[in-house]
Amino acid sequence: MWIYEKKLEFPVHIKEPNPKLAQLIISQYGGPDGEAGASFRYLSQRYSMKDRRVAGVLTDVGTEELAHLEIVGAMVHQLTRDLTPEEIEKSGFAPYYVDHTLGVWPQAAGGIPFNACEFQVKGEKKPLTAKFYGTDKKLPIRNRQEMDEILKSLEDCKYEITEVKKGERIKNAPDRGLHPRQDRHHCHHSLPALAHQR
User: Fold this and answer.
1) What SS3 state is found at 177?
2) CA dist 165 to 22, 133, 161, 170, Å?
3) pLDDT tens-digit profile of 53-77?
4) What phi and psi, each to the nearest 5 degrees, are found at residue 193?
5) Alpha-carbon distance 164 to 116, whole Å?
6) Is 98 exposed, middle or buried (0-12, 13-18, 19+ CB in 10 A)?
7) For 93-146, how does the pLDDT look when each residue is reduced to its tens digit (9 = 90+)?
8) To which H or E segment does residue 25 belong?
9) How do residues 23-38 score in pLDDT, each as one tens digit?
10) Confidence (pTM)
11) With CB atoms counted within 10 Å of each terminal CB, which end of the chain scores lower, N or C?
12) What is the pLDDT of residue 150?
């Protein structure tokens, strides 16, 4: 829930209209890097956060982006307020005016309208687990560094594949230049299979 304060976060007082400048600034309103996309991005991504404190931060940031959207909208409005037909034609503002008159409409500077393709939202990925078959050893893989450490520990190992368990989503072991039949001696590490936790 939001409580709206009826004033801009930062005041905007533009005294001279400038439709050419407005056509550029409007991209910050509804363009690919604009405030509309930013606010939707943060306010949508927060639902994927398991830590509610992180979700709260994303809510705060998304709310801040809405405040920025309002500031940019006020700038575009004031830059195009009370334009004469001559000013509209001379500035190249006529194509926009035909569709939207002097309304503030979310689009990029190139005229591309804002749409949902301007931002991306993803759910939280399931963590990986390295299972060492033949043992009870399991290691969680929470980041790239932990993955690299496990792979580094296997660099000098020689192995053979003795079985492939069915019914599990198993990724192939990395190719370290060793053919599985080159050496049938197992190293002190068992070969891990990377499987999503269920």
Assistant:
1) coil
2) 63, 10, 11, 8
3) 999 999 999 999 999 999 999 999 9
4) -110, 140
5) 43
6) exposed
7) 999 999 999 999 999 999 999 988 767 777 766 666 776 665 677 777 777 777
8) helix 19-25
9) 999 999 999 999 999 9
10) 0.62
11) N
12) 77
Dihedral (CA of 10, 7, 112, 15) sign: negative
* Token pair listed for 92: 């190249």
The identity of residue 51, as a single letter, is: D
Which residue matches tokens 């002190």?
A: 188
Mean pLDDT (the chain, rounded): 81
Distance, CA of 176 to CA of 171 (rounded, Å): 15
Distance CA 18, CA 79 (A): 5
Residue 180 has pLDDT above 70, yes or no: no
Residues 146 and 6: their CA atoms lie apart, in Å, by: 49
CB 186 within 8 Å of CB 159? yes
- Nearby residues of 62 by Cβ (< 8 Å), 6 or more positions away: 38, 39, 40, 41, 42, 43, 46
